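Quick one:
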Amino acid sequence: MVKHAVEANFDGLVGPTHNYAGLSWGNVASKSNVNAVSNPREAALQGLAKMKRLADRGYVQGILPPHERPHISSLKSLGFSGTDAQVLEQVATTSPSILAAVSSASSMWTANAATVSPSADTSDHRVHFTPANLSAKFHRSIEHTVTGRTLKSIFADEGYFAHHPALPSVSHFGDEGAANHTRLCGHYGEPGVELFVYGQAAFNEQAPAPKKYPARQTLEASQAIARLHGLKDSRVVFAQQNPAAIDAGVFHNDVIAVGNGNTLFYHDMAFLNEEQVLTDIRARLTGAELEAVRVSNADVPLEDAVASYLFNSQLLNTPDGMLLAVPGECREVASVSKYLDKLQAAGGPITAVEVFDVKQSMRNGGGPACLRLRVVLNDDELQAMHRGVLLTDALYERLTTWVEAHYRSELTHDELADPMLLDEVRKALDELTGILGLGSIYDFQM
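Output:
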């Protein structure tokens, strides 16, 4: 019997050290805004406002908390010693780039937090979680431990939820989480097709690969997660991302394609073997026909897709078709704005477009889809999870007040070494875990 299920979105709450350090080689937006003055308070409030709009529309909207930054434990593991203030002074004086890395608020992009397989797809009929090792970037590779603790705290009932450790943190098993994973289905509670998109086959030196920017997701990592989650071969598609797209700044598949239900919205340069990918999906998808919405390079040049983050939009199911939740930048790029008008008039599966202001995130290279981790849950699983992280009107008001009390309105790179900032962060996060009922998930709480 097919159980009723919903797709819940768990957005990352932007952290108090949100800053523009330009840490992500291959992410054009991240590099182009390096050293700009950030506004952590505005960034967090923009993220909360997006969550609230979707919750008000009836979507199940959850919250994942930010990580402790600067991350003193990482600095001590690298040989910096003394009190926390002395550690910050040492790293700021000798290795400011390392300080920037351990101060990044990148955990807000929870599309990279983990790969999630719903119980309808897995062999033991539990929801499976594997935190991403994010091994391609040091500042992100330090996230998976706290991400795993957080997910286990929220999805604690082992009768419904299974948790795996991150894959080995080496380039051969580079894993960027759900940013390179899409589930397609007829109904959320039915078995679906899990589409894993990879940048290169790490153990095959002759395989196609990008030449300018690194491929962050490997075929081997995607295959390992499929095995860990107990997915049937007949329900999985492994597709290679177009190397030319990676070299154009498409560092994750979710910058050039997004899917939901039976709809796949993608640029014609998304996949190396486009027709084979579509054929494989159609062969495995049951209960619905694939609705492939293909955007040609003639309509939206690849550089415009990257600049606007058209495909890093959320694709949301509604009673009247699919809603595309786009960043405001999509209306600032002429070709993209023109295309969106044509899309709504086309009579296809995407029937509505709404604009969301996430400019603070966009300047660091993350749009609406980067900010959320999708978790399909049936009614029993929804009841079994820790519900204190689900957004309500009361929680929204409380979190808004919390942000306004604890976040700075401006943050420069020099301030990352301020011991007072670390104290502010820890005080804020300690209070936040109490608000959300998560218990002790941070190093400083242990």
